[in-house]
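Fold this complex.
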Amino acid sequence: MKTNNHRKSWIALLIALSMLIVLTLLDNWSGTPAMLLTVLRKGSIYALVVVSMNLLNGFTGLFSLGQAGFMLLGAYTYAVLTVPVEDQSAVYQRYATGGVGFSITETLSGAMGQFGLLIGVIFCLLLAGLVAGVFAWLIGLPVLKLKSDYLAIATLGFAEIIRAVVMYEKLGPVTNGSNLLYGFTNFSDFHIGGLKLDTVMPFIFSGLCILVVVLLINSTYGRVFKAIRDDEIAAEAMGINLAKHKRMSFIISSFFAGISGALLAMYQASVQANTFKASMTYEILLIVVIGGIGSISGSAIASFLFVGCSEWFLRFLDNDTKLKNFNAKLIFAIVFGLVVVGLAALIFRKTRKMERMEKLWRQIPVGLLCLGLVAWDIWFVISPNLKLPLLRSGFRMVVFSVVIMIVVLFFREGIMGDRELWDMKRRRPAANAKAGEPK
Amino acid sequence: MFAKILPYLLAGISVGGQYALIAIGYTMVYGILRLINFAHGDIFTVAGFIMVYAAASLPLTVSVPLVIILTVILGVMVEKVAYKPLRTAPRMSVMISAIGMSYLLQNLMWYLTGGLAKQYPTLPWVSNTVTVLGCTTKRVTLITPFLTVLLVVVLVLLIQKTRIGMAMRAASRDFETAQLMGIKINNVISFTFVVGSFLAAVGSMLYFSNYATVSPTVGAMPGLKAFVAAVFGGIGSIPGAVIGGFVIGICESLIKGAGLTTFSDAFTFALLIVILAVKPTGLFGENLTEKV
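Structure:
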């Protein structure tokens, strides 16, 4: 058993290393599509925040909606501390005494070059996490006593309060009010010689953080969290200190949310409080659901999928498109028809499994919709029109949210359920029998 | 001093009435389904958009009832599509479904309207300006509180005196037992959504007459605030929601008057956290004991 574990860690390390090498190559090869790099960078950062939310919602069963607020805290902590001194007057142009007057990364990289820069960034990232964690501790004092939806709404409220405070005019000299913060150290400052590390760095940072979360979940603390999720009362009866462990989970989750906020700021190279709205939290929550509540690897996969779809694969939905000729139209129509029929068949199977009564009634609207779409498909082939309908700005998000609703309603398990990628080979009959949370 | 405060007070009472109307929708749904209907704020916005488009081509006598009818249909549809299939699912799933629905409605509105803020039509008589005690304001500001109170009285009578009202009370007391007693629970829930959406539609007409433009995400904030109002008054209690709505509206407006506009939203949530920490059942909420 022991040697087996060792072998596993070696394999994991090897995979990680080879991934880093591939990423470095992708980063420096001129033929890499720019979109791929964007997706990889943003996806890795999203993976961290989604995992941090999953730790709270999926593993501890605390339904919190404060993630955007903690990301905001992390992003601002990082940004304020690393804006170079000579840029501070330009960044804080609306405030005469703006800026903190020093920049941690600048000082350290001035003294020790790239190594100093790395130390400085790591220090600031940790600080970003700590600030978020401290606030989580403060917020947790009154809020964690609340039950499910009250907790959700209270944390959501706290995120809004944090946003309002950061945008407060009197704090402007530090936070720059509601204006952009920019110019701080970001991923493009990292390089070894001529080697760019833009994509590797976010992977390393968020990968390490996710690793910590995985280790935490597999530790005794992780088992305590799961016990609380499965049955609070039973867990308490087993002698688990509920308040302490809930607080712990909340603080750790916020810590990593803070770090991911800082990473997001680095990726965007600018940060503004107004982007960290409740809708951001909702988006993160929906990624958690797509990946599977209670699965770290699911969260990571779903993040890349989500970012990939929204930034890359589904971009075409936002543009007006004219098909080239009849053949292209025919191919499109066939693919579309197959997708519609396939989806309808999936939904039919799912509803038949779920319900015994009313199943006929439930299937009628789906069937009608499917028939309608197929009829339209045929009509579209016959008609001389070559322009694809519906495609225009905003359609991507509609398709997106429809897919999300379908996942939420029919595939509640998400991509991975509560399994992990590395457990896939092992049979787990208990996983299917697992009942939902109480109440 | 009073002359300075008065306009803010009037605005506060008006916006408070609008919050109250939305809050009733939240509190009734929560009372029965134990679910925060996150999509309620978006239904409110959709009502605003329907009005924009309806009033562009139809006379007001047609478009006002049309807005109400379409909003009610939308509200019931949201329930049928997003909440009904999850009736036996864990509570978290239903809440996620509600959030997903809100996301869907927002994106759909964005797509259909092009994402730009639309000018809300001016309703004759209601949007006219009047002068009260030396301060000029729109007539809607004065109508709102009275209309709110009137609607609430009707609603309370409905709940206290009619059969469906009795069924609603039973369902909110104990969902399962009510079912065993032969109450058609799905009808009760649909009716709840009908009432909630109706009030949201009325609230949206009043709200947007005051604010003049509608954009896809504009309903999220009033929606959340109305929810806070519902919690403040004690979730499940209709008079509580109304009082909560007025308290929040007035406080917010006064804070804006004091020049702290950034904190008007923050105040609402601070109030929520204080009330949850001090008296989680709200002002008029019933004390429910958790059963093991």
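Chain A has three domains: 1-32, 35-316, 321-390.
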